[in-house]
């Protein structure tokens, strides 16, 4: 927690102090308050949400390789965003509501909804849900690729969106997603004990008195809503949702009582950290944060795995 | 102590009938052992009681139908030890046994101090305290099996269902596990229904045996009544010798079918 606060301050300051050191001018205050801080806040919120949603998905599907995009949230959001780009991003600039996050949000929700109803109609076991998710994601990706071939002029914009970014964050983005993230995280945290019961399998959990399907449905709804909300403003930031829960598991405990709350803190800190190199590396533009998370995250993950093995 | 009643209980998987209408009453504190060849319906009967297999007919505990209970209430009455329990490698022994308290913890609540103290006590009494902080992945099959039984004890359900509790254990650990169940039955007054393959062990520990074949009861009674060479050869298709020890123990020994 303390580390997260320190990171927050450091990250806000980094890059802002371009002027002479000492007093902070009012222009710098403007930069810190309106450009740096919302960016830091959004990175933290997105990192926290993707991590806690990833951990929850791993819990209800009892599969450590699962991320919050499992049931088609990413493919649906990607398709939604592609639709907006393909049908003319420039014409939407004057609209009172930016359709891009809205389309991504709706795309993610619709994809997961379709996955869940298809999976449930074939019995609703976690395997049928995962398979339905694969099918829905494939379908969304196919439509997206078809659109991109027809509108090859927007490929760069779409890929930049897919790679994820928090660089253009404003306070209104933060205000937009914060309620979803707070509500979703609260619901998921309530279920941390239930996720521990699910670790012994659907059947044994049921014989211990847990209503497995209801728990799974509530957790998937909460995790999906939160994920769709953050994806709508930040694009598809990968790897966080898989890596952060595992780091917590390896470093602290595999019990969801610890994994869920700590994923929120570690996920927020990690994405704030991952947002820094992207600003500094590339003079002209910004390296997308989704690229940095994987680039930084993969070696970090290997180091954690190695050190843990040595301990065990 | 509680009684367990089966009234015309039947289970079908699609068109396949796994258990034909089954009626029996297990008396409070009694140990009933279901025996029979693979696919006879032993596990199915236990799963029906645990609420894991959809069934016709009525299953009662102390005369009250289980189907009317909420899943949590049912779990407070019936504890089920599955044939091959899923033991998460990275879960500790304490966390595992604590799962037994699940029926008593509210949806939004966490385990109380009483729940934790009770689990610590169960681990102590079962000589499992040394495994409290160990990960399940580092334990042997016998140690894991004792933790599964400990979880069922922590569940404080008067009816204990054991599906092949000893199939994965060596002879020493088989005896240890069954002695443990028998001791707990004495201490807690559990009513036990088990499914077992080892006929000698079944006869040694259970008060009564029920032989199932293709989903139907073909014999029920004491070990001496059920474990007869001609009965076993008819339903298992084996040739065995049955010895009666002076202390009443019935020993079933397989025989080579062709002696040269």
Taking Cα atoms only, what radius of gyration of chain B do you get, to the nearest Å? 19 Å
> In oligomeric terms, what are we looking at?
heterodimer
> Strand share of the residues of chain A?
under 5%
Average pLDDT metric of chain A: 84
Largest interface: A-B, 19 and 31 residues
Structural class call of chain A reads mainly alpha
Helical element count of chain A? 13
Low-confidence stretches of chain A: 15-22
Gyration radius over CA of chain A? 20 Å
Number of strands of chain A: 0
Number of helices of chain B: 9
Determine the fraction of residues in helical runs of chain A and give it as a percent range: over 70%
Q: Would you tell me the structural class of the helices and strands of chain B?
A: alpha/beta
Order of H and E elements of chain A: HHHHHHHHHHHHH
**Stretches of chain B where pLDDT falls below 50 for ≥5 residues?**
none
Q: What is the distance, rounded to the nearest whole angstrom, between the alpha carbons of the first and last residues of chain B?
A: 53 Å
- Which term fits the overall shape of chain B? globular
Most strands sheet of chain B? 6 strands, mixed
Distance between the termini of chain A: 27 Å
């Amino acid at each position: 927690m303390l580390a997260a606060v320190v990171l927050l301050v450091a990250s806000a300051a980094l890059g802002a102090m371009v002027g002479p050191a000492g007093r902070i001018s009012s222009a710098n205050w403007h930069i810190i308050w309106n450009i740096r801080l919302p960016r830091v806040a959004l990175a933290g919120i997105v990192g926290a949400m993707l991590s806690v949603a990833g951990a929850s998905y791993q819990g209800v599907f009892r599969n450590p390789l699962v991320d919050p995009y499992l049931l088609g949230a990413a493919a649906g959001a990607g398709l939604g965003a592609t639709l907006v780009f393909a049908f003319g991003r420039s014409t939407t600039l004057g609209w009172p509501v930016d359709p891009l996050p809205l389309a991504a949000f709706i795309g993610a929700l619709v994809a997961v909804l379709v996955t869940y109803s298809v999976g449930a109609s074939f019995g609703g076991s976690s395997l049928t849900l995962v398979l339905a998710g694969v099918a829905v994601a494939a379908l969304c990706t196919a439509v997206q690729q078809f659109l991109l071939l027809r509108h090859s002029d927007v490929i760069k914009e779409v890929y930049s969106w897919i790679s994820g970014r928090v660089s253009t964050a404003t306070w209104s983005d933060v205000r937009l997603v914060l309620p979803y993230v707070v509500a979703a995280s609260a619901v998921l945290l309530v279920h941390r004990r239930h996720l521990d019961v699910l670790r012994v399998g659907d059947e044994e959990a049921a014989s211990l008195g847990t209503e497995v399907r209801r728990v799974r449905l509530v957790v998937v709804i909460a995790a999906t809503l939160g994920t769709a909300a953050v994806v709508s403003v930040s694009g598809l930031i990968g790897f966080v949702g898989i890596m952060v829960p595992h780091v917590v598991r390896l470093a602290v405990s595999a019990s969801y009582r610890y994994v869920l709350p700590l994923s929120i803190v570690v996920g927020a800190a990690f994405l704030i950290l991952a947002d820094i190199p992207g600003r500094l590396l590339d003079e002209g533009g910004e390296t997308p944060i989704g690229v940095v998370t994987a680039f930084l995250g993969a070696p970090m993950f290997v180091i954690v795995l190695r050190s843990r093995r040595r301990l065990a | 102590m509680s009684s367990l009643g089966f009234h015309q209980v039947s289970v079908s998987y699609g068109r396949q009938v796994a258990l034909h209408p089954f009626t029996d009453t297990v008396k409070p504190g009694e140990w009933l052992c279901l025996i029979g060849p693979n696919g006879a319906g032993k596990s199915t009967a236990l799963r029906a009681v645990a609420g894991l297999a959809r069934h016709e007919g009525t299953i009662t505990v102390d005369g009250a139908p289980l189907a009317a209970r909420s899943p949590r209430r049912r779990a407070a009455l019936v504890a089920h030890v599955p044939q091959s329990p899923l033991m998460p490698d990275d879960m500790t022994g304490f966390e595992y046994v604590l799962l037994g308290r699940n029926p008593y913890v509210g949806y939004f609540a966490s385990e109380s101090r009483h729940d934790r103290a009770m689990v610590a006590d169960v681990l102590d009494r079962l000589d499992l305290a040394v495994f409290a902080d160990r990960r399940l992945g580092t334990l042997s099959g016998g140690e894991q099996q004792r933790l599964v039984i400990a979880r069922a004890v922590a569940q404080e359900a008067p009816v204990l269902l054991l599906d092949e509790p000893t199939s994965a254990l060596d002879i020493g650990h088989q005896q240890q596990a069954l002695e443990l169940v028998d001791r707990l039955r004495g201490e807690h007054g559990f009513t036990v229904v088990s499914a077992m393959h080892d006929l000698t062990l079944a006869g040694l520990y259970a008060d009564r045996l029920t032989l199932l074949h293709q989903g139907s009861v073909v014999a029920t009674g004491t070990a001496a009544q059920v474990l007869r060479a001609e009965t076993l050869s008819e339903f298992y298709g084996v040739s065995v010798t049955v010895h009666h020890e002076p202390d009443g123990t019935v020993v079933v020994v397989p025989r080579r079918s062709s002696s040269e």
